[in-house]
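Listing S7. Sequence submitted for prediction.
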Amino acid sequence: MSTETRDRISLKFWQNSGQLTLIGEVADIFYDKYQALLEDLTGQVDAETAPIKMVELLGWERDIERFPGESDELFRLRVKYALANARDAGSKRGFEKIWARLGLGEITQTERFDEENWDVINLEIDETVFGQYMELLDVMIRQYGRTCRRYEFESVTEGKEGFIPFNFNCEYFNTKAGL
């Protein structure tokens, strides 16, 4: 039992004898047990180690909804960092921090690349993350994206050495003969 967070009960010198001393010792034992119980409860609140039902309650409390097919590990991370993610929401750097906390790799954000549609933000995401977490992307934009902005996703993959990119253009005309 931990006694570091509170001072032991100490009575005034005129009370420190007989039955009052025993009552003080019993109160110390009671508070030690109560403190240990509270420490056990707070240990269960940790989203990484708590039972999944407790994590679902924490998620409800922190406004994190589990989407279909979401892994337990990702859901635990989203619940664990809910407060920090909410604090960082709404900025370019904040969205990068959220992305890193969830362990989704790198993301590149390009803003105002189109003069006419200045409210569009282009997100360049690794192809594996893009394919695996499509629903998560929608959830993150809805919950942590910037207000009054539209988002475009762009899947990025690395080519191996020797791979030469090229353009292929093709035009064809469909005409009826004899007209």
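Caption to Listing S7: primary sequence and predicted structure tokens for the chain studied. The first helix runs from residue 19 to 44. The first strand starts at residue 107 and ends at 111.
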